[in-house]
């Protein structure tokens, strides 16, 4: 039932201050101090020779030295002499390269802009000039594309055909005798 003089609540009450959300495991959960102070890293497992993939290049070379020629002999050799790839051991025996004491790794920082150029808005003006030049170039290119193509009619209007000259030659049957 609702409290006297108050409407009925449409939600559940929150748990008390001693309530912990989530799963709590007593043996492993030490909270923030354990997370900061201990580095529980996973140790790399040593792989046995059987888990490494087979080295077919070495086995084929050995089979050829022993005189194997057919596929059956090669299979027999692979079964009898099972050679696995060796595990790569990454060791850093070499010393780091010699570099000068004042050498800086990475990208060099940009030089500082003069404060007078910043106060005079020089970079804004340069940018606006670049934008104006870019729009002018685009307009010129667009005008070139919008050029009207000449048709036969426009060419003939500019350069009319030469007038036909009157010919004085007639057929012999039409000549006056």
TrEMBL record:
Domain of life: Eukaryota
Pfam assignment, any one: CFAP77
InterPro entries xrefs: CFAP77 (IPR029147)
Protein name: CFA77 protein
Species in which this protein is naturally found: Turnix velox (Little buttonquail)
Gene (name only): Cfap77
